[in-house]
Every structure is written in structure tokens, then in C-alpha cells.
Amino acid sequence: MEEAKNGPSKHVIIGALVLACSHSRMRDIVGTDALRSVLDVEYRELIAGGTFDLQPVWELFEAQPGFDPQAAVAPLSRFKSWERQLGIEVTMPVSLRNLTANEQAEHAAECDVPQRELKGVLRSAGGDHADVDRTEPSRRISTQMGVELGVESGADSSPGRRLMIAVVASIVGLLGFGLAGSSAYRECVPRAQYATFSAHFAGQLPIQGAERFGREVRATLSDEGWLNQPEETRKSQLGQALRTIASQGIDVLFLRDKAGKVRAYAQLYDGERLRFVFK
Question: Among 87-96, 113-122, 255-264, which stretch is predicted with the lowest mean pLDDT?
């Protein structure tokens, strides 16, 4: 499916997905150069239905040594959260389509992508070559790897299957996926950084520190007994704290336990409505 003249850029969409993966535990399993190349080759198939389908991407990840399903949920949820910025609809993998909006938001929060890096990707539409026909290169990769892997001609040609074959080819020609490339890659990829944020907004919330990332603030509970307070009390205190900082462009407040697990969060919609989740 060809993109509309003023539609989303293939270069930007692929860059955003690669960026999300690079700031998640998937970076230990997948190398960005190889992933970018496979997505570039298979892009027309991934977006053929009018949305960006993450099911073939999930199948690609599943085929990699050391794949952990939990490691893939966060970057795919983060990518899904960028639908409006990217100007596309994203279809989650089949196994994740039962996630609620709240659960997706919680998983996305685990994938810390610096706002400046996302903005850099969104500004990088120049140089995109979305209209170049990638069909023949894709077929050549599949054919070459089909011989090596013993795949008969005419075998399953679904986008997911082609992606898995193409990624094996990438191991040979690029950085590669899995353990072969993960050590060097970890040395090169910067980790996302939250900025220290004043905890004066907390009110009655027992927190020992806070950090800001874009429109989100995460704080660590100093007294986890707060989680046993009546729900209405927790909602009142959490909501009041979020409203206190909403004027600073913040619309999500996460509370974590001392082990780093998200235990509660509040999200502000339309500057007025609040949604709460407690774990």
C-alpha cells in the first residue's frame, strides 16, 4: 500500500518502532540495523491493510534466541501509544489484543524513550524512499535463505514467515539478532534518562523521590502501606497530586514500589477527567 502524499513517512514509522525496541529489553535480543533493514523490506506488507500490523513483528521476535514475551510487550505498547504523532493506526499482535487501554499505558511506561530522541525521529522524514519497490530484494532474501534453511519453494509466504527468513539473512549480512550482536549493541545504545522532579507536589502521598519524562512523572513510594488505604483515599490523594502538576504539562503520574514495579497510576484526560489504576 502506497502512502498518501501527505501521509505518514515510512522512514519515520520504522524509526519509531526501532527506537522503542532500542530502549527496552528487546535490545538484548534484536540489533537495530538488522531490524530496520527487515522492516524496510517488509514495510508494504506490514501496512497493506491500512494499519501498521505488529503481528508479523511479534512473529519475528518469537523466532529469536532468548525471546521473552514480556520483554516485547513494553516497546510494542509504547509504539502503539505514538499513533497520533505518527499519523497511523497500529494493530497490536493477536496475543496482546486483549490488553485494556490502561494496561497498554502501564506497559508503555516501562519503555523509557527520551522525548528528544522521539522528536528527532519525527523530524527525520527527509530522505524517505517509501515508493521504491522492495519486492525483488525481499524475494531474493527469502530465496537465498530458503536454500540454506531447507525451505522448499512455495512454502508459507505470509508476512510473518518472510520476516523470520529475512531476519536470519540479516544475521549474515548486518549486525544480527540475538546473542551474537547484543553485547556490542548494549555498549552503543544510550539508556533513557528521567529528569529529577521536585516531590513538593506530593501532598499526602508518601513518596521519597520523583522523576519526569515528557508528560509523565514517576515516583517511588516511601511507605508501601499506602497501598492498603481505602481506594477512595488513594484516588483522592493521587488525583490531587496529579492536578497539582498538570499545569506543568504532566498528565500521567505513576507510583512504584521500592522494587520498581508500577503499583498505581493516575491519568488526566481533557484537563479534567481522571482515570486510576491500582495493582
Answer: 255-264
Helix, strand or coil, per DSSP, at residue 91: strand
User: Residue 245: CA atoms inside 13 Å, Cβ hemisphere, count?
Assistant: 27
Q: Mind listing the pLDDT tens digit for each residue in 227-260?
A: 999 999 999 999 999 999 999 988 888 898 888 7
Q: Is the CB of residue 189 less than 8 Å from the CB of residue 27?
A: yes
Tell me the backbone φ, ψ of residue 28, rounded to 5 degrees. -80, -10
Structure letter (DSSP) for residue 199: G
* Ranges assigned E (strand) in the chain: 52-53, 90-91, 195-197, 207-213, 216-221, 252-256, 262-269, 273-278
Q: What is the DSSP letter of 242?
A: H
Residue 270, by phi and psi: left (phi above 0), alpha (psi -120 to 50) or beta? left
Alpha carbons 78 and 227: distance in angstroms, whole number: 26
